[in-house]
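Typical record was shown:
=====
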Amino acid sequence: MTVTTRGTLPSYLTEGPAVFPQGFVWGAATASYQIEGAARDDGRGLSIWDSFSHTPGKVAFGHTGDVACDHYHRYSDDVGLMTDLGLAAYRFSIAWPRVQPDGTGPINPRGLDFYDRLVDRLAEAGITPYATLYHWDLPQALEDRGGWTERDTAYRFAEYAAAAYARIGDRVSHWTTLNEPWVAAFLGYGTGVHAPGRTDPAQALRAAHHFLLGHGLATQALRAAGAREVMLVINSSPVLTPEQVADPAAEPSEADAEAAHRVDCLLNRQMLDPVQRGAYPEEVLRIVERYAGLGHIHDTDLRDIHQPADLIGVNYYNPCVVRSGPGQPSNPAFPGTEDVEFVATEGPATAMGWPIVPSGLSRLLVRLSKDYPETGLMVTENGAAFDDVVTAGEAGPRVHDAERTAYLDSHLRAVHAAVEAGADVRGYLVWSLLDNFEWAEGYHRRFGIVHIDFATQRRTLKDSALFYRDVVRENGLA
């Protein structure tokens, strides 16, 4: 079955100017393996993404992150681009293999030197750094010992967090432990489309638990060292039935509502409830027990995991649409979803094939604020890949990316609508600052508001970047 999505916002979200609260944080986000390059410079060890991308058939066109955007050498110029755009915040990730090449043991000072230089350059530009400790580049040496399926990795992660904070914590107040642990667990260990490429639902469920344990232990280490703010970033989506996509007020059937509830527990609440509330949803525990047993969940784990985030980071791209589907096998990315149909959608979509549903972001932010009212929210990723065309202009190359500009406009209005509805949203970080290595898609999927010519490393501000610059300057949309 397919369902048609609405690519524009309902009228009540689009009328009039959208001015954001004073102090709303505007910025951009990137990730280490996707932009840094310099894969073997200054003592950096191998990550699982180095191994995965160099394995034939794993990444489109055989692309790797060996060079990427060469941000490791061009970071100062890239900070200059942020300054030109008026950004107040920059969310970057630290490459664990730069800090500890083997994931444990001695610290590599040359690896941390890079983040020293980056943070100092950001300070010169008046841009607030938001450091993410894990954006998927696990040291390969730890994967060889079992990776995130082993609880020891969570303890090694906490040690690494303390080492990173000891070096730059005097200048970095905003820390994120994990980026999208659901993706890292279920696409990395369940479906195998991401590194490390394993395909075992039991391993994925164990990895998910150990990611959360790593968050809890690292949060304790950061706070003991003096960290002011710790954030957990999740890939969150509203889980809707086809009727709710067409009409947000629609009441689904009992069977469809159960399917949506089960998927919501696996996608959203599995990652947030243990951290924010200290317990897994019962539906999740039943599925974990059936697939993996409960032996990997130790008696004190939930006490350690229950370290509520100061902010919840929300990465939003599209809703998840499901309905009851008797006889359907379990989705490999969602163990325990027998008899659930994941519904394809028709309508406007990005180059990734992801449906464009900005109202889903409003719905999600309002829901999260109601579910976790004690915790503020930040949109830490939102953006779109389109097939950009570079044209010649009098002053140099131009990229007239009208689709991306429209995407950002509609989603920013959706964020504003959520704020107006009472959601405690503190800021918005566009994904992404730069075109980059887009994981298994390689370099042919471009999310950046800055175009990268990967042959020459030339940077060009796209029209969407100029649009975003105006939004930042005006603290809203006309």
